[in-house]
Amino acid sequence: MTKHMITRIPDMLFGADYNPEQWDAETISQDIALMVEAGVNIVTLPVFSWSRIEPEFNSFDFQWLDDVIEKLWEANISIDLATATATPPAWLVREHPEMLPVNRDGIRLEFGSRQSYCPSSLIWREHCARMATKMVERYAEHPAIVMWHVSNEYGDHISRCYCEESSRDFRKWLQSRYQTVDALNRAWGTTSWGQIYSSFDQIKAPTIAPGPINPSQTLDFDRFSSDALLELFRVEVDVIRSHNSSTPITTNFMSFFKDLDYWTFADLEDVVSDDAYPDPSDPNAYLDAALNYSLMRSLKNQPWLLLEQAPSAVSWRELNAPKPPGTMRLFSMQAIAHGSDGVMYFQWRAGRFGTEKFHSAILGHRGTQSRTWRECSALGNELKNLSELVGTKVSTPIAMLADWNSRWALGTPEAMPSEAFNWMDLAKSWNSALASQGLQVDIVRPQTDMIAYKVLLVPNAYLIDSITSEFLKSFVSAGGIAVVGPFSGVVDENDHVHFGGAPGPISELLGISVDEWWPIVDGQHELVELDGLQFNVSRWSEWVELGTATNLGIYISGHLKGKPSVTTNKFGKGIAIYVSADVDANGLDAIFRHVVKAANIQSLCDRVPSGLDMTIRSDGKQDYLIAVNFSDVPSQLPTWVTGLELCTQQHLGENSHVGAQDVVIVKLENNHQWS
Ligand code: GLA
Q1: Ligand 1, from 151, 328, 356: best to mutate by most atoms within 8 Å of Cβ?
Q2: Burial 175-185 (b: 16+ CB within 10 A, else e)
């Protein structure tokens, strides 16, 4: 069995962010005793504590942190040790006000919140390296430290900075990408709207202009800004690795956060971790959460860690609904079902002051009287039964492409055929339709080895460069089935439209060409026919011309009546399907049923009841079926599911159920065969 990447803890990780600097010694001792009672085996600290550790330049106070670490370790609690660089101390900002970020409106953002830094600031990077060095020199050898936690949610508050230093850094980045200003002019198409540059010095970060900003420039600014935070991350990763190579490094992600290309961040770290805050007032939140977790387990193709979730309500939505009784357990088990090797929270103890004083915690303001305490401590103890899942992976023969460059390129909506077109919405609806057939996706990028996959879903790939087109073609020609969604193959890596129109370099693969995009007015819909059934399409449709492809479906209403809507084309040993519209859930279901049958994939069951999330984790030899039932009624499990249920340690026979708002984790007697 693949074992935990955090090798010193053989069990599911269970713990929380802890802010001991907000509490006195007596409370800290109480906290640690309660952590033991709740089954906590890891805590994250000191994320926001730079100003407490170094109250003045070069004057350090580590004693309080030493004491907490010792006490935790005496209680056998390990530590995900933050480098404390999530936010700078006031003295640093006052000494170097130029390191404060500037927003798009040109306003320099004041100290008094968090993340008060420009990602490109050399002063900030220098001080982060200095702080990380101090932390690593002091604590690298401590047996409690099982993971390094660098910064916190990069880009959460500041992912794009428009200050002079960012502009300088952007120019440097552009010079290294293009070498000459002529090459940049070509890439940015500056002959449009008269924007030709005669020197790199004339370029600034794209703030606000009289009209929409050149989309090629915006695309490069998105790439640069993601890279700027990546470079900041690299500064600390290099420091840690140069002192201590064996302790894994993580930085906590924010699910499918658009602003940062998480593939590049994951390449730099050892453990992928995510902060997941599904909205308890959204009954479909579990479906989107599943897609986020697909990304997390795929970024390094290994188990990941749910590093933060809310015990109940958050404090940053317009309305912060609590998690109803039992829901936190379900969301936690769902993360485990999708490959997390633990469950951690923001936060251990609710603060009495500050911006997050109304954010839930394991220990709320009522302490152990609170419902969150009862539910969290029960879960911590329940997870002790799941150690054998640690290191196992979710397996699926279906992949979905996620390319940040393409997402960013879609990012000038005011210059698109429709502002309503959105990659994330399509990805979610495609994933949900597939999940309702008992199937999950892994997320892939063009570099991914596709040997394990039979189907590749591409809800949209607006930007297709030569690497992506080769990736798609070689997958299909080797026998795979690709399903490509609307508005794909439109532009190249510079956001220049492909000659001959969409789908550009994959026209031959799909056997079609697109004559015109036909966006659908908000609130209206058209109809398509597939397999003799009618389905709605909204927001988007296209005038498609057949080449070598044949029709799977046609439009049966509106201006496109009688034209192809869904097409299929043989290419090499495989098949390439094109879906030219934003098809409703039932239509997607019909398309995917066709695909799953053609690929000869055996899903977990024919139709997953609404509210049920079902996955398989496996070590390659032993499969575990995990069914999490978010609905208010019991759900029938597939008849073939039998084996030992890990939470109750009871044998589960054929035709069993998972109760309403409950979970079963079955060590299967018969492994599932995907084909
Ligand atoms: C994020 C941050 C935490 C905290 C939580 C609140 O995940 O990393 O510091 O602010 O949000 O939900």
Answers
A1: 356
A2: eeebeebeebb
